[in-house]
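[agent] plan:
  1. take the single chain provided in the ticket
  2. run structure prediction with default settings
  3. attach structure tokens to the ticket
  4. add a short note for the reviewer (M.T.)
[agent] executing step 1
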Amino acid sequence: MVSPSQKPSVCNNMATPGWHVGLYIQRNSRFLLKNLDQLSAHRRFGWTPALRQQAAEPNKESTETIVIPRKKTWSKEAVLEALASTVSRDPTAYPYQFQDDPYLYPRTSSEFRINSLAQESGRSAAKYFINTHPKFFTKDFAEPHIPCLMPENLSLRLEEVSEEALKERISLRRVRAAVDMYDHLLQAGTAVSMETTHDLLDLICIYCDSDPVQEGETQPTIDTEESGEEMKSKRKGRFPQWSNRSNNWSKDNNAHRIFNLLPERDTRCYSALIRGMVMHGAHETAFSMYTDLLNNRLNADIHIFNALILATPSVVKKEETWDRINKLLEQMNQQKVQPNLMTFNSALKALKQSGPTARTQAPYLLNEMKALGIAPSLSSYGHILGIFYKAAYSGSNTDLLQEIVSELKDTSFTCQDPDDVIFFTNAMKICVQFKDLTLAYEIYSLLEFGDNWKLLGDAHQQSVFYGRFFNLVCQMADIDTVMKWYRKLIPSRFYPNSIGLRNLLQAVQIDSRLDLVPSIWKGIRSVGHSNKINLVEEVVSLMAKEKHSPEVQESFAECALDIKKVFSGDTVKSNLEWTSVSLSNIIILLLRANKTQQAWDMLNLFKSRNIVPLVGLLDNFLTLCHSEDSPQKAVELVQLSAAFYLPATPRLAERALTLFELTEEQRAILSELKSAEESSD
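[agent] step 2 finished; step 3 output follows
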């Protein structure tokens, strides 16, 4: 055994190479095994468990070369990411974007929308001010540095006529100024490089020959040829793929003029114009430009083919869509252009607007993607679902969706296509359509895996997804499972609408768990749906449906009194008007909880609000009068029935005459009411 005093030193020779450290470990293995706790200082060398195992075998000679890894470099966000990984989501908390000011927490879906719009407006105003006056924001205290939050330099610094000035205007997205500078360069006889010309054409085509709308300005009305998908996305509240377009494409715009002035036109020039035409609705013109490119013996690039495939449904009939797409794919092969993910996604998206042939060609495209080593994105599967689960010829089961979800299980996705956000919402819609709760759970698990939740889309799509999932749970699961998801999703994930809350109440009724109604009513109040008369009456009628234990009846009575405050507007402004059913049911709940005085007080509302009481309610009150030995109240009850000309008045009068010991005056009143009602009949 080597003693510590005999330990050789590697610090005396500063030029000791890296292999000497490995030799030192090998020669002193037994000593190192006894003093592993002292090796922490050497971990900077990157020792691995394999090296420790090598030290444990001193007699085993090894000729392998030891490679010491470089020091690990951590990103500036590593600490934040490590801390975030230790915290789970709080289902009782409001969404994280509203954590700054508890006073402004939205309680309803409408408040959520207003708050979100206000926050977005504030961000736009701040960005506009920062970009307009960058001189006031010259210091950066952020750690780590976040470039997108720093002010942009929007002021022009180069005024002379030069290509550098043109590049500056292009980088600042000054379309008009860039075109003017390009014209000045041509007039001065200065040649502009082809690379700068490409950038200028790209800028003009993206913004359709007009300056982009700045933050805080009003965007002009869009009046372009739009595909059915874009119109559908607008109706659903989603932004189209190209939100910067503001004008129709014109053949007289500067892009065409500059293109025609070029002495030589390469594929990149054609690509800029064709993509701009497709982006702004000039689909026929885009195909004409592609024909011109072929006539000039040029080959198209991948971006041209992707744009043309996407525009195909607008230039041919539905039944001819696949033939045109297939022809473009064959031309890609002839021109040796390798397809990418967007090529197949564009083809699948175009097939959604074609005829029945889409169902036979979509699997072919998906298999072709995999054969080329291109992994489908969520939008690829989303388009497949859109093809096979159309309303016109909807599938008979969820086998296809089940196969897709099984293939995607335990996979974390990143956004590769703007349409990736449509997959989860459409998949959950199919589960609701076929009442497949098991598959819905699998889709939810896929959404929660990794960072897939980021691909759920904007606030509207999130609300649609969680709303569909919760409604399906209410329809198919037992009440304990329903309440578990109710507490987990609301309000941290979404704000339910009145339909979702009625589904929840129906689930409570089906499982005969009416004791949960008071807690659900608190949730209804918290999310701002206490002003929905149908929902309120549903809550009251469920509680009054049957009699329960004294403890449950007490909670029902407290809930009924809270509902009474909503009708009277004591807590919030309310447009609710008392109805005979709601008022009668609340009084019944109070009677069952022995809150007789409050029930008598509410009985007066029938006369003051001119509301006809239910006959069963009057029978209950007459029984109460008998138990309290209150003949005078019994007489007043019969008088109330007579005031509304109820057919049951003679029967109530006869019952009162039988049950109570009355004075002559009271008997006379009841006898007169009885005879008057019988004679009127």
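[agent] step 4 note for reviewer: Residues 624-681 form one domain.
[agent] ticket updated
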